[in-house]
Design goal:
The structure holds two protein chains of two kinds. In chain A, 28% of the residues lie in helices and 24% in strands. By secondary structure, chain A is an alpha+beta fold. In chain A, helix 9 packs parallel to helix 10 and helix 14 runs parallel beside helix 15. The termini of chain A are far apart. A five-stranded mixed sheet of chain B has the order 2-1-5-3-4, with helices on one face. Chain B folds into two domains: 77 residues, Beta-grasp domain (Ubiquitin-like (UB roll)); 66 residues, [2Fe-2S]-binding domain (DNA polymerase, domain 1, Orthogonal Bundle). In chain B, 29% of the residues lie in helices and 16% in strands. By secondary structure, chain B is α+β, with helices and mostly antiparallel strands. Chain B contains five helices and five strands. Chains A and B meet through helix 1, helix 3 and helix 17 of A and helix 1, helix 2, helix 3, helix 4 and helix 5 of B. Bound molecules: FE2/S2 (inorganic) cluster (2 copies). One FE2/S2 (inorganic) cluster (FES) sits at the interface of chains B and A. Chain A: Keywords: Molybdenum, Oxidoreductase. Chain A: InterPro entries: Ald_Oxase/Xan_DH_a/b (IPR000674), Ald_Oxase/Xan_DH_a/b_sf (IPR036856), Ald_Oxase/xanthine_DH-like (IPR016208), AldOxase/xan_DH_MoCoBD1 (IPR008274), AldOxase/xan_DH_MoCoBD2 (IPR046867), AldOxase/xan_DH_Mopterin-bd_sf (IPR037165). Chain A: Pfam families: Ald_Xan_dh_C (PF01315), MoCoBD_1 (PF02738), MoCoBD_2 (PF20256).
Amino acid sequence: MSLVGARVLRKEDPRLLTGGGTFVDDLAPARCTFATFVGSTEAHATITSIDVRLALAMPGVIGVWTAADLVDHPDLPGGFPGLERPVLARNTVRFVGEPVAVVVAEDRYIAADAAAAVDIRYEPLPVVTSTEEATSPDAPVLFPRHGSNIATVVPMLDDLERDLQRCDQRASLHLVNQRCAAVPIETMACLADWTTEGLTLWATFQAPHHLRNYLAAWLDVPQTQCRVIAPDVGGGFGSKIVWYPELFLAPLLSRRIRRPVKFSQTRSEAMVQMAHGRDQVHDLDVGFDRDGTIKALRFVITQNLGAYPDPTGLGLAVLTSWMAAGCYRIPKVSTSFRTVVTNTTPVAAYRGAGRPEAAYSIERIVDLVARRTGLDPAEVRRKNFIPPGAFPYETHNEPVVYDSGDFPQALAECLRLLRYDERRAEQATRRGDPGASLLGIGLSCWLEIAGFGPNGSLEGFGHLASWESAQVRIQPDGSAIVFVGSSPHGQGHETTFAQIASDELGISYDRIQVRFGDTATVLQGVGTMGSRGVPTSGSAVKRSSANVLLKAKKIAAHLLEASEHDLDVADDAFFVRGTPGKNVSWGDVAWASFQPLRLPPELQAGSLEDRLYQESPNFSYPSGAYGCVVSIDRDTGEVTIEDMVLVDDCGTVINPLLAEGQVHGGVAQGIAQALFEGVQYTAGTGQPVTGSLLDYLVPTAPDLPNYTAGRITTLCPNNPLGAKGIGESGAVGAPAAVVNAIVDALAPFGVEHVDMPVTPEKIWRILEEHR
Amino acid sequence: MTVQATRHIQISLTVNGYRSTTTVDARTLLVHHLREHERLTGTHIGCDTSNCGACTVLLDGRSVKSCTVLAVQADGAEITTIEGLSGPYDGFTAVQEGFRQCHGLQCGYCTPGMVMAATSLLTDHPDPTEEEIRLGIEGNMCRCTGYQMIVESVRWAVEHPEPGRGG
Ligand code: FES
Ligand code: FES
């Protein structure tokens, strides 16, 4: 029986359900010390003095370090030339929370006391928090030597003005895709222990090898003396592939004080120090005909990078511009973007990273076209879809060739599950009743780019490469260990990769162990991001397992005196087809594989292992159709999601239970962006308004609906599994579905757009105007 | 600023059935005491504003956020942490088994707190509705699951009652 496609229960769960997981802060080696940052209280200022004497005098304080102590060390890696981020602020602070000094003490309580006792004086400078302010002619400049706050610009080759004018109608939208915080429930934490053998760094991180590569270079030690371990990781969502100062300082300080140094953020620290996501402003122009055919799309992106450009942060707008046209055949598409620094926390990847922004805008635009033409939003979508026969489909951007999909089928399934016609009829009735709550129906036919990636794609974000590695090794008893380079943070690699390997090898699921997250035991790796786990890493496991099986069959054939071509493998044994009773167990084959005297001449001892690097010829393009029904209380503006239908196409599904979990989690974050969340700063001072979980509204169970999941399947031709990836889908597709539903509910009031998060207050104000 | 001299106080707790008497710094939070002194690291910390519930434990049978309780306030109390649960499902309680069966966890960081909150909920309300479950775990944040599978996990436990639990 095939395990791929089965609802197999997770291998991870028993330890995580009993408190047996190992998260970084759970580790406590002997003589462990604790490091805490003194963060800037100013958003933009010159540091005039730092007085550490009081802190140093406190019992239990081991030391306090500032930028002056780091002159021999480079800035954080991956910086943009001229806009690099120092490990600790040097002379100037550029966002509230930016680490200025680091205290190391005997425990976290003393460290916190000492950090509070460090006296830093600032000379405030003018502050910019939005890209509008930062790009105004008289804006204060964050990096005077760079001369402006604009980091990168990709201009438009053709502004499509003539094409837009030629259409029956045109419309424009100015959309703010607000800044969000990833908020993994485990904040950043790391533990560095530098012994005579070298460094071991435990870090809650999505890409331990990636960190090892840069950390060893930064420390100027060979990689053999720099071991990075990502143990259990409590969520990441993109925020744990960022070069945070603690990842470099904890090792350095451990070497200096010859003791282990642990760093573990409080949530309030995490809210300002962990990278944020999104924060794009879009200016969109669309040209269309009366029948709803979209002819031209101009898509202008402004990306707020925060105070220091992050390598991923710089790439977000690239991905947005690539995916600007979504799942539609639009003859003319032009994009441009610029990236801008401001006095805010740096912006990097957050679940979807550039694609939720694209999907949101194109889906809002399609709804606007429906509104202006008076056509049904489903009809406008159908009219403009790329047809199922048009794949591979070349887009307006050369590297982007959509692999496969069936958008009309996904939408049809979504409408069916939504009972679309029925709900539309109900909406018409309710609109006639001033006492009834407002009903809105929103669709989102989204498409994203995943499966990172083809050679060159992740290199652009500073990674070593874009492949992923797998190594399959058979133990002498016929059990198997699978090492993978991608290191998970909740995705369930131990389970899904064991399913894939089990099918391929004929070894039972319980006899397969998946290992990752340790640079000393796993060959090389890239990491877990960009919905690449199954398509890239899973494909590596599949192929590597197949390679091992080929050799195992040779040994089995030799032992059975049969032809390897006549062998089948299942249930931990090899069988000769058509000869009942002639078989040999995997255990016997594995045992023999280490005994040269029992091997066929072409094989050597230890042959039953394989390692490979899975390259992908192209990206994968997960897609789907989501539908949302909301009701809005006319008195309070409160939104209730009555229905949330999620039809996904992620190609091959390895484990439907886990795939559904990924979709739910992503959708929850998407709904949260649509309704609740948004990082805010006070204009003029740059003080964060949402500096803790009291003010930043992460939804809890009563805030979110039940989901109705559906599925269609078109296989990805670019990897041997046919899988497209599922990690980011929900976050890409959900925001537009929710906002489209709200705008639809408010249509009788002439509302064409409301920016996220659509709070009850925003809706209440709109309703007040029309009372 | 003035630095307060720390004050040490002797406390006695029964944690997961074992009694221990120790001296703690008066300001030590119960969660830090459990994690760092008792070395029961299954109880997690996810915030500093009592919002996330990752630190939920049972104190004299009732769920509390152990980040909002001082260790000295728990003097004389009986504490149950995730490590202290055991039941008929291969050692798991029905709540733990429900989470396993229904994929109620992904990264697992919120999980011990969720399981303790759900355990407490089912002690008070052996047969909660979906809405009651959602409200019952309102003090616990999960960033991975979107909650539906957690709700289903708790329902699984309701449908598989354990002898001695609730009604
Ligand atoms: S750590 Fe206790 S509520 Fe968040
Ligand atoms: S499972 Fe990750 S936070 Fe709940």
